[in-house]
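Changelog-linked ticket: zinc ion example.
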Amino acid sequence: MKLIYSNENKLLVHNVKNILEAEGIDVFIKNEFAQGAMGEVAVFDTWPELWINDESDFERASVIVEGVNRKANAADWVCNNCQEVNDASFEVCWKCQEAES
Ligand SMILES: [Zn+2]
């Protein structure tokens, strides 16, 4: 097992998990529920972590995560369908599943 990604935003961790799973990479999340127990302030130790089960997937997974991170630094986008603001790393609207246009 190997740590591949961590972020204080649980939604982003789930997003990366979905992308890696779609690529056939076996992943799981640690610390998913640790944040609530720690109160408002997110301590780095309690960030949700995304781990891969098979270390032979690590290189391929790193490339994918790198791509996601690059996108995450881009601007947020607004859904044409429901006007919800989406993080740049999301491929589809988190609310209505409409694809980014
Ligand atoms: Zn939408």
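Closing comment: Example verified and attached. Residues 79, 81-82, 84, 93, 95-96, 98 surround zinc ion (CB under 6 Å). The first helix runs from residue 10 to 22.
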